[in-house]
Structure prediction request, 592 residues.
Amino acid sequence: MNKANRVRWWTYLLLGLAVFACLFPLYWMFVVASTDSATATQMPPEIVPGGNFFHLAGLVFETVPFVSSMVNSLIVAGAIGVGHAVLCSLAGFAFAKMSFRGRNTLFLIVVLTMTVPTQLAVIPQYMIISNLNWVDTLQALIVPGLASAFGIFWMRQHIGATISDELLQAARIDGATTWQIFWRIAFPLVRPAAFVLGLLGFVTAWNDFLWPFIVLKSPEMYTAQIAIKALQNSFDIDLGLAMSGSFLATLPLLVLFIFVGRRMVAGIMDGAFKG
Amino acid sequence: MTTTLSTSRAAGTPPAVPTRVRQSIRERVAPYAYIAPFFLIFAVFGLVPLLFTFYVALFDWNPIGEHVFIGLDNFTRLLDDARFWNAAWNTISIWLWSTVPQLLLALVLAHLLNHARLRFAVFLRMSMLVPYITSVAATAIVFAQMFDRDYGLLNWLLGLVGVEPIDFKQSVWGSHLLIAAMVTWRWFGYTTLLYLASLQAIPRALYEAAAVDGAGSWKQFRHISIPSLRPVIVFTIVTSTIGGLQIFTEPLLISRVSAVTCGPVRQCQTLALFLYEQGFGQFQFGYGAAIGVALFILIIAFATLNYLLSARVRPER
Prediction:
């Protein structure tokens, strides 16, 4: 074996340090979430988990409406995930496989919108939501996030690369309508890519903070992230409580990630620049 | 106008296989219907609000009171407002602290991960994506604790080697570093994966030839990896500019008291937080919108500048 091609020990050391840095804050979150507040503020700090987690977790559910917050987050993130998978696939299919007037110009517009920082227009966005009477509702969080330029770009790439024109032609000759061609032939073939896109939409929506923070008012409408913020406000000193809430709100994504993380990593790398 | 499925990638090319001569209207509008949801959503929640921001910025606009046209007064007031300049500097400082180390770290890690014979590759990649799936809110709370002056893990470790406790939250540089650490932590793994994907598109033979010629890891990194990564580096610099200058949640959540100002002396108040404070805290929609316009100009200027610089600078061969 060529000596220069072997993996050196320090490669593993550096990568190991990076993995440690990635995972340690979550471990630490659990440590503080499982000790009582007296131990959380002692020096030197306790670095192994204590037995207080279930007590603190119970307190979280008493302090803020955490069950409804998690359900709200699930509804919002789920709707946005599905919306991304379906709507971006549809648009991506149109841009990749159908010819229509203005196609290239419209696609250029889609790509350009990716670079427009619209988040700083929160004041008029709030005014529009307010005029629609959507303040303090979940649709105010769902509708603006149902599709994205990135998602359309992503699905167009995948549909273009995966589906041959001959296949679609054959279906056309057999008398299939455009919708049937999309739904019965194209979409099933790109379902893995649409799934990963849906996951990315889900994660982003689950973790969103600014927009729900502006739009939501009443505790029963909170998403998990806003509930964490409320925990932090109501118990300024009890760090363990805020940490428990944070940990509980992160847990569903961690569990999901254990099952689909491999596909997510592959998907992100698949969508990246090559060469 | 045809709306058949195209056989070639060029727009408007007639289909190779003749389909029905006359298509139903339904079939003809189908492509527009497929792309309509995005355009509708972008128009209502993206473009219109953006244009309206420029309009509202010209008014003394109270959400429940009067809307008085005052021209550019909001902007002259903004330029005289020390809080605005403070927020602008904070934003740029935090963005630099979080972007530069993040991209350098990602470059090195991507290079290390790109080794052909690396073991545990899937585990390593998945671990690096864990911070990305952790929310900003949770990240902010755990980092604020780890960087705490009195009970923080970091100060305890520093204390072991005789360093006096650092008050990260209350000092200007400390709070900027703390926020930058959070941003870097959440994003370096994602950036690493983007770089790694590009690296894997480089033919292995190139590295092998270099190794045979006696080039070590560092030389291979500088002369093969970096030049090939230029497009994706430019991409990440531009996207981190657009995202990083809008930073909001991290500074809001690290200080538990006086959150909107991010501490008594506004030591880490960013432009996005200042916008929120004026718009939703003080109900000065006009002034808040003016901050939005200023932030917009700043982002466009920085993103363009970064694009030009990073596209221009060529690594030495």
User: Anything to note?
Assistant: The CA atoms of residues 206 and 212 of chain B lie 10 Å apart.
